[in-house]
């Protein structure tokens, strides 16, 4: 073998592994007469991407692949990838351009698809926020002249999107009370010939009322037929951000098409990213959603995809601890003399906790169980979200609630939820202060209502913190009255 053929072999192997290997050997080619050698000029070296050597892929943690574009084998490869660009996941043929999907985003999406029980026909897509996922899902199926049904208790941002955008795009919206045993019939009563979306959010914010998803799937099938029998059947979507797939595997419920999460909350779990996921077993739905993502909303970026994957790795233990802590906090609140009402699905006072293994609450909180027999060995928990109302009318309750929030030392005063640290918020003076009082009350947001996202701190610290703050408000009022 002469030197030239050795060189040619080396060069072809080199170009095949371009994306895997360090380009540290540019000088090796510079002595060649070949006109296509890699130049060693300074400006070109600056612009060139250098990669680690081949065993880098054995790092236990997955790499974060930044980059908007990917090198192609040849023009045919590029043509092939353009044909496949609206699939939920790539195959081993690779990536072409990050707006159509990229490796770290896809790794994370595959993990969420596994948690959701997505089958081989479906997929999961990740977005830059929960709202981005929700609006993408709605935009992918709703057209002018269509009708959609939503619960009154839908997330504020979703409500705003419907009022500020969807209605101006000539989409008709009906709001219904979807909670509890009567919920499915309330949905059925709202159905019309042009209904294209049936939307649920469960557990509801902030009352944690449960929607009977099995019932909703059933009434949609009864009224419109199954998807196989009626391609115009509405898409049934569920936002189950509060429960996560640890409690609710929405796509396993017959008749439910789409599962949505704000991954900013429990799935991410650390208050450090914004993200949203949308999952479905329908290739038709995934195709439409991929189009919206590609053209309008864009996929979740690589860094946040990595952080989301990292958060999900502890989801199981975090959710168990959130639930154990929240039950203790809820029990203290329910017994406290300054508290009028406590909303927590784990309390027997919750309207959907009618007892037994088949009540709405028991069905909505799977508690990470895999097999039937796990019911006997794995503890039942009910998530980390609690709402409670302090006693008093109007401004009295408003003042008390503010002071309870401000007197906390362990629990943080901040909106959002689902993180390892506990958060508390007072809707009447914070997130919902701009809404007229009557409208707020009609929506169940009392002046004295406080929402807690119970974190994974030591339970006794949380119970003590809340109890001390409530006690102090009572004591200072008693002192004022005595003076
Ligand atoms: C937070 C939240 C959203 C919106 O998610 P973002 O990530 O903030 O855009 C949607 N639905 C529910 C139930 C939420 O709690």
Automatic annotation (TrEMBL):
InterPro entries: Cys/Met-Metab_PyrdxlP-dep_enz, Cys_met_metab_PP, PyrdxlP-dep_Trfase, PyrdxlP-dep_Trfase_major, PyrdxlP-dep_Trfase_small
Annotated positions of the N6-(pyridoxal phosphate)lysine modification: 265
UniProt entry keywords in alphabetical sequence: Amino-acid biosynthesis, Cysteine biosynthesis, Pyridoxal phosphate
Gene3D superfamilies, per the entry: Aspartate Aminotransferase, domain 1, Type I PLP-dependent aspartate aminotransferase-like (Major domain)
UniProt source species: Cyclotella atomus
Keyword DNA-binding listed: no
GO molecular function terms attached to this record: catalytic activity
Pfam family, one: Cys_Met_Meta_PP
UniProt keyword Amino-acid biosynthesis present: yes
UniProt name for this protein: cystathionine gamma-lyase
């Amino acid at each position: 073998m002469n030197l030239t053929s050795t060189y040619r072999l080396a060069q072809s192997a080199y170009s095949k592994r371009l994306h895997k290997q360090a380009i540290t050997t540019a000088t090796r080619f510079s002595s060649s007469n070949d006109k296509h050698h890699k130049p060693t000029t300074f400006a070109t070296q600056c612009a060139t991407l250098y990669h680690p050597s081949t065993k880098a892929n054995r790092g236990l943690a997955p790499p974060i692949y930044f980059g908007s574009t990917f090198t192609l084998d040849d023009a045919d490869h590029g043509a092939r990838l353009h044909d496949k660009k609206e699939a939920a996941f790539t195959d081993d043929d690779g990536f072409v351009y990050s707006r159509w999907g990229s490796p770290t985003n896809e790794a994370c999406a595959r993990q969420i698809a596994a948690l959701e029980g997505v089958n081989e026909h479906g997929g999961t897509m990740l977005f830059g926020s929960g709202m981005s996922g929700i609006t993408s899902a709605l935009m992918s199926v709703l057209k002018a002249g269509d009708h959609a049904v939503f619960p009154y208790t839908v997330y504020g941002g979703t409500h705003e999107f419907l009022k500020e955008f969807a209605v101006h795009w000539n989409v008709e919206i009906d709001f219904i009370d979807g909670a509890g045993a009567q919920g499915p019939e309330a949905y059925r009563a709202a159905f019309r010939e042009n209904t294209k979306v049936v939307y649920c959010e469960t557990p509801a914010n902030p009352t944690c009322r449960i929607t009977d998803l099995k019932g909703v799937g059933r009434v949609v099938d009864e009224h419109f037929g199954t998807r196989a029998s009626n391609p115009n059947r509405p898409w049934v979507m569920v936002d189950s951000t509060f429960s996560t797939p640890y409690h609710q595997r929405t796509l396993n419920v017959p008749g439910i098409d789409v599962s949505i999460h704000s991954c900013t909350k429990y799935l991410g779990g650390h208050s450090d990213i914004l993200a949203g996921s949308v999952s479905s077993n329908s290739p038709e739905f995934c195709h439409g959603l991929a189009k919206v993502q590609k053209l309008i909303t864009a996929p979740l970026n690589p860094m946040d995809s990595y952080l989301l994957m990292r958060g999900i790795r502890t989801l199981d233990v975090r959710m168990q601890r959130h639930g154990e802590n929240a039950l203790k906090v809820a029990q203290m609140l329910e017994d406290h003399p300054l508290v009028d009402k406590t909303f927590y699905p784990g309390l027997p006072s919750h309207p959907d906790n009618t007892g037994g293994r088949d009540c709405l609450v028991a069905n909505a909180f799977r508690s990470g169980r895999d097999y039937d027999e796990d019911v006997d060995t794995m503890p039942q928990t009910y998530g980390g979200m609690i709402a409670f109302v302090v006693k008093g009318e109007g401004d009295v309750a408003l003042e008390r609630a503010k002071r309870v929030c401000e007197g906390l030392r362990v629990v943080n005063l901040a909106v959002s939820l689902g993180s390892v640290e506990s958060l508390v918020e007072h809707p009447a003076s914070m997130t919902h202060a701009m809404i007229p009082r009557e409208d707020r009350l009609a929506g169940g947001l009392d002046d004295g209502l406080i929402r807690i996202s119970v974190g994974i701190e030591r339970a006794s610290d949380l119970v003590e913190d809340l109890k001390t703050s409530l006690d102090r408000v009572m004591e200072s009022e008693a002192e004022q009255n005595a003076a």
